[in-house]
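Schema walkthrough. Field components (list of strings):
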Amino acid sequence: MGYFKLLWVFIKVGLMRQMAYPPHFFMMIIGKVIRILLLFFFFQAIFLKVDRIGQWSFEQVLLLFATFHMVDFLMSITFQRNLVQSLPRWVQTGELDTRLLLPINHLFLVSFENIDLMDLFSFIPSLVFLGYVLLNLPITLSWLQGFLYIILIFNALIFLYAINLMVATLSFWTTQSYGIGRILDNLFKIGRYPLDIFEGFWKAIFIYFFPLIVIAQIPSQALLKVLSFESVFFAFMVSGVSLIIAIKFWRIGIKNYLSAST
Amino acid sequence: MKSLFRGEKVFVEAVRGIDLEVEVGERVGFIGPNGAGKTTSLKMFSGILYPTSGELEVLGCLPYKREKRFLSQITFLSGQRNQLFWDLPAKEYFNFCREVYHIPEDEFKKSLKRLVELAEIEDILNVPQRKLSFGQRKRCELVAGMLHDPKLIFLDEPTNALDLINARKVREFIKEKAEEGRSTILLTSHNMADIENVCDRVVIINRGKIVYDGKIEDLYRLNGFKRKVRVVFNGVWNREGVEKLGKVLSFNGQEVFMEVASEEIKRVTTELITHFPIQDIRIEDPPLETIIESIYKKEVEELHLP
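Field assembly_structure (string):
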């Protein structure tokens, strides 16, 4: 069964599930708008006192924030919920058994089984916000920049997928991986601020050891025309290597699956 | 304090030294007390669990590699686990199975019709599975698991927690499937009716080891078991004549009810037929549960056929 076909099945199932439990569209959208506005005002308050954060102007910080928001959203409607919430539960309860018996790619199944297209409604505020930011940027955008921006967002998703997969895989040994997932989620959120707010040691950590710049900073730089070839290469390397390590880690983890006694 | 910092891991060896060969088309029942290693064995055979040591080959594949070629030929149905996509009606779930197992459309329609009738689920096909009763859901799962016509069927306590009617329906479904003879069946159950209805071979596991492997009917002939013989004579006979053959439980001159060790049964019945004027002779076996229970308790020291 092709991956796209399988993905389509998951989406269909998600829609049927949503029909069974009527979604709270409005609450979802209102929640999202409030969160965006709060951070918008937070940045505005900062920029009342300063002109720039490091190299970043107010409009640029908003772009970084909008980009982060979009990556975060795409991650949350696709693999994050599956890997960080569902997989540890399936491992603990033995519900993974049924999934391992299906003749399809098991990693793909556990990564994308629950997809809710209804979540797209909560994407509207993020898109409107990104549109507003782009219109207010004092630069003209080229198609190439747009293309690079999309590619780098996709690359950021690969990096985040790898990290989430590594954390989820821990559940084969410990039931604590959900907690670790929450910590990581908070750590990821640092990626929505310009890393210029950090200096020395911490800056190095978030660039090289836990490269948060890959998530939103490097894609944003593509639109701001300040992106170097080295940064693009670095971003692809980080995602590629993380993905390889994560898949290897998953393979070791699944060998250690103990199921649950009946 | 030590354990607070350094969790000690205890590995429990669930199954050890299981040496088992199953031929194509055989219907094997796995019996054993709770914790004996039955489910663990089945999970290893089906590739859910990775064996820590030993050799394992099923349908020419190494199950733990979980290759599509292998997984498309098996099915594993458990009395306890829930299937995927709980919110979907069974009909939609069957369509999902058709896609996953690449079942050709006409073949799918044909087998779906037959299986749905067999499982008696025609009227619940469009109801979301979470709204079905446990028994109805189990029957839907049976259908879903058989759609791709698996060569190897693992059934882990299929009638567990089912009411009498649902258990019977499930049992009949499996029996019918078994009688088609195309599939090899490995079944675990605490319910002897499941085993007797479906299996032609039984493997008894205790503490992770095989303690018996043979035909069900041979279980009755194991050394050490007492079987009961009821004899009706033509006319009246004296007690001393029959007392030397076995322990007499009741005697009224015309009828004797006695207990005979299973290894003695052949000799005793021959003697009765040759030396006594017999109108009727009947051998009563203990219920299978009693035999199995004694095996668990190790009442039978040596398990070998006479």
